[in-house]
């Protein structure tokens, strides 16, 4: 049907809030019935995505644009660099919102959770789809706060390119480094946008220098600012030698003029831009051989004759090869420089075709998708965001979840527009979809069309694996690497208002865990209490708040506690015998083993077997031994914290015939606990890397406070007017630090934290802790 109806006309007046019912062509009604939106949030959207004004487009091109025209990009940055404001401006200029949202007013499209609007921070990543100059852009606004690092990691898995936003007055900050490293890990090409050029103290030169020094990246200056701070009025396009000036009287920044630089009117600026363009050409020629040949051949005499298109193509090649990063500048809040940023996204960042994923050939065009986020909607149940790598998704399609080893059916398919979702009939590779009806799919699951398709892909992977000498089991499992979930550092007990509400609390926590795998929930065996484990104070506070708002439960949190670990300092041997008769069966196990410390940090115990034990050990018994060892190492002898950095050597094992595997596990576990009690023990505490930005006046106060908190200072740098203190502080000493820092510095200082490693406590502190 879609192929017959190549074109349809949409009357602009008839679609105030995307109600696509009164179509000019009566035959369209049935297929467009599925395009109805849900729950408008009191905003006006100009028209159907891609149908700006009275454009005439085929229905198919609106829903499934050609793959070369798709861009999956993320916006990543340090907290408060202006990610959400930039996203808001992008949506406005691409014609999707009628008014400019503001983080401070709490009416932005992507920050739609109540907690985000109150705090003015992004907690969950929101996916937004829009069109720009014939390109379909799927944009994901990610959090910058360290407690939500996992949200960023999860989204980078599915992006093809990224825009890194910087505060021009601060340059590279602590969390910028973290997200940049994450993007390096996933090999994502990126563009830099120096935001807040209108801020007092903004310095283009300083910010570019910090990208070069701290991120070890090669910045390609595609723009120069016209003025800095209050004087900022526009940008110079270095590639085309044009200046872009925004109308100072315009409220929304839609009107700007693009004028070529002329010798007559701007001699100084033209000279500066020509020098910058020549430097850019030389820089790109150093990185790209094809471009170097072109420059040295035809344009060696005069770089001015080099066409802008040739330069753009070369810049795109080095961006995709990740040998350099294009740098643009502007001010999202003052509505300057956002349209050129959108043009750069379409010109320099890759389409899904240009990223090579090694698993794609295994599927031969069959469905392969990654569920990268789960949201719970009160009306529609779990909504699963999916990135489609190959194949096609339709409503009522049965899909196979490789991780969960189960088949589920998609009931509806939506196109995500932050909190607005448009229903669509199908979606092809390269797109990001929102599916309704999947009950068991969780974050990080790999989706295929059927079990047989997954097995066929596994066989292809195996034959390829044979050629490359890869480990077969890796290829068989075919899982698109999920997300590495960091270990939680904070925990506290959570109590329902009454025993009758416990099942409701369990359900709420189960839903929240599917959405956020970095939240861990466990049951304390001794007290029977539910324990929440999270990434930081803010993380646990937000979870508590969400249980109250979304599930209507007034829960009580116990005091926050730090997740300590334990280890041992010397090798110890122990033997144990377990002899039980159950019914008419005798279970007898004798085990002798040695527990010793290892040099390299490892969370799981390293298990070794003596030659005499491993020779004829059945697989089931080996699994039982390992289960026993792992369960014994979950609770150490000092604080009941997990034991790490230990190796266990099994020296002898005698098993009476007919002994059950549970008895073997129990005996091994008891023997390990005996050995751990005998050894010299040591508590390990989480050490946080801290970066504090403070003005000169308060530097000594902050340093004195950090010294009291057992902090060690690495270095103190100068960033324009401010001092940047970098150091390490034990997590136990940093609880409630934000309030103390605000008090000490009259609210002028900011800080960023991330987990560095686990460090041994000194004997005095350990004695105090155990006494508590």
UniProtKB/TrEMBL annotation:
Show the PROSITE patterns listed in the entry. G_TR_1, G_TR_2
Give a yes or no for keyword Hydrolase in this entry: yes
Cellular component terms per the entry's GO annotation: mitochondrial matrix
Q: What SUPFAM superfamilies does the record point to?
A: EF-G C-terminal domain-like, P-loop containing nucleoside triphosphate hydrolases, Ribosomal protein S5 domain 2-like, Translation proteins
- Compartment(s): Mitochondrion
Which UniProt keywords are given for this protein, alphabetically ordered? GTP-binding, Hydrolase, Mitochondrion, Nucleotide-binding, Protein biosynthesis
Q: InterPro entries in the record, alphabetically?
A: EFG2 (IPR030851), EFG_II (IPR041095), EFG_III (IPR009022), EFG_III/V (IPR035647), EFG_V (IPR035649), EFG_V-like (IPR000640), EFTu-like_2 (IPR004161), G_TR_CS (IPR031157)
**Residues annotated to bind GTP:** 77-84, 141-145, 195-198
What NCBIfam families does the entry give? small_GTP
Entry's family note: Belongs to the TRAFAC class translation factor GTPase superfamily. Classic translation factor GTPase family. EF-G/EF-2 subfamily.
Function summary:
Mitochondrial GTPase that mediates the disassembly of ribosomes from messenger RNA at the termination of mitochondrial protein biosynthesis. Acts in collaboration with MRRF. GTP hydrolysis follows the ribosome disassembly and probably occurs on the ribosome large subunit. Not involved in the GTP-dependent ribosomal translocation step during translation elongation.
Under which name does UniProt file this protein?
Ribosome-releasing factor 2, mitochondrial
**Source taxonomy:** Eukaryota, Metazoa, Chordata, Craniata, Vertebrata
Gene name? GFM2
């Amino acid at each position: 049907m879609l192929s017959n109806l190549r074109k349809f006309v949409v009357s602009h007046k008839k679609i105030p809030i995307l109600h696509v019912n009164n179509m000019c062509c009566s035959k369209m009604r049935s297929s467009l019935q599925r395009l109805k939106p849900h729950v408008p949030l009191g905003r006006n959207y100009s028209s159907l995505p891609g149908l700006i004004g009275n454009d005439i487009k085929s229905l198919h091109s609106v829903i499934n644009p050609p793959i070369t025209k798709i861009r999956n990009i993320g916006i990543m940055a340090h907290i408060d660099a202006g990610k959400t404001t930039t996203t808001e401006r992008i949506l406005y200029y691409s014609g999707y919102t009628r008014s400019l949202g503001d983080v401070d007013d709490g009416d932005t499209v992507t920050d739609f959770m109540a907690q985000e609007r109150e705090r003015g921070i992004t907690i969950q990543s929101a996916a937004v789809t829009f069109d720009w100059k014939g390109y379909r852009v799927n944009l994901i606004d990610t959090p910058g706060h360290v407690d939500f690092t996992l949200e960023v990691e999860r989204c980078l898995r599915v992006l093809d390119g990224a825009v890194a936003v910087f505060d021009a007055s601060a340059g590279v900050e602590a969390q910028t480094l973290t997200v940049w490293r994450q993007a390096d890990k996933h090999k994502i090409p990126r563009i830099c946008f120096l935001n807040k050029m209108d801020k007092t103290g903004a310095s283009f030169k300083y910010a570019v220098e910090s990208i070069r020094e701290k991120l070890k990246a090669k910045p390609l200056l595609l723009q120069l600012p016209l003025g800095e701070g209050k004087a900022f009025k526009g940008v110079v396009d270095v590639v085309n030698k044009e200046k872009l000036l925004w109308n100072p009287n315009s409220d929304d920044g839609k009107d700007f003029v693009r004028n070529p630089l002329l010798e007559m009117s701007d001699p100084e600026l033209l000279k500066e831009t020509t020098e910058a363009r020549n430097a850019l050409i030389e820089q790109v020629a150093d990185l790209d051989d094809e471009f170097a040949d072109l420059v040295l051949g035809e344009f060696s005499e005069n770089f001015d004759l080099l066409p802008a298109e040739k330069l753009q193509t070369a810049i795109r090649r080095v961006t995709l090869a990740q040998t350099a990063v294009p740098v643009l500048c502007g001010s999202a809040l003052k509505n300057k420089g956002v349209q050129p940023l959108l043009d750069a996204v379409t010109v320099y960042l890759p389409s899904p075709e240009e990223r090579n994923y090694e698993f794609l050939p295994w599927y031969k065009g069959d469905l392969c998708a990654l569920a990268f986020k789960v949201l719970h909607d009160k009306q529609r149940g779990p909504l699963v965001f999916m990135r489609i790598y190959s194949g096609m998704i339709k409503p009522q399609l049965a899909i196979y979840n490789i991780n969960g080893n189960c088949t589920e059916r998609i009931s509806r398919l939506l196109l995500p527009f932050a909190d607005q979702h448009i229903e669509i009939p199908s979606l092809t590779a390269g797109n990001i979809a929102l599916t309704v009806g999947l009950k068991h799919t969780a974050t990080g699951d790999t989706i295929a069309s059927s079990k047989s398709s997954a097995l066929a892909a596994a066989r292809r992977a195996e034959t390829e694996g044979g050629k490359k000498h890869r480990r077969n089991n890796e290829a068989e499992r075919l899982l698109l690497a999920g997300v590495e979930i960091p270990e939680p550092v904070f925990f506290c007990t959570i109590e329902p208002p009454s025993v009758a509400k416990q099942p409701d609390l369990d359900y709420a926590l189960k839903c929240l865990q599917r959405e956020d795998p970095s939240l861990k929930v466990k049951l304390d065996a001794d007290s029977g209490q539910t324990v929440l484990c999270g990434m930081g104070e803010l993380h646990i506070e937000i979870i508590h708040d969400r249980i109250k708002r979304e599930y209507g439960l007034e829960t009580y949190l116990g005091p926050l506690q730090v997740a300590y670990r334990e280890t041992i300092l010397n090798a110890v041997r122990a033997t144990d015998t377990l002899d039980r008769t159950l019914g008419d069966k005798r279970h007898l196990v004798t085990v002798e083993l040695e527990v010793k410390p290892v040099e390299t940090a490892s969370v799981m115990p390293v298990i070794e077997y003596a030659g005499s034990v491993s020779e004829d050990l059945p697989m089931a018994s080996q699994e039982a031994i390992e289960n026993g060892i792992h369960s014994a190492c979950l609770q150490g002898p000092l604080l009941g914290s997990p034991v790490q950095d230990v190796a266990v050597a099994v020296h002898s094992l005698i098993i009476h015939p007919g002994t059950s595997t549970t008895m073997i596990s129990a005996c091994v576990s008891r023997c390990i606990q005996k050995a751990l009690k005998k050894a010299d023990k040591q508590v390990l505490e989480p050490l946080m890397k801290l970066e504090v930005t403070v003005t000169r006046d308060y530097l000594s106060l902050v340093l004195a406070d950090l010294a009291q908190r057992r902090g060690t200072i690495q270095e103190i740098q100068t960033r324009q007017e401010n001092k940047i203190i970098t150091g390490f502080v034990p997590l136990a000493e940093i609880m409630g630090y934000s309030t103390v820092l605000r008090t000490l510095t009259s609210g002028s200082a900011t800080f960023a934290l991330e987990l560095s490693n686990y460090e041994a406590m000194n004997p005095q502190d350990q004695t105090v802790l155990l006494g508590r």
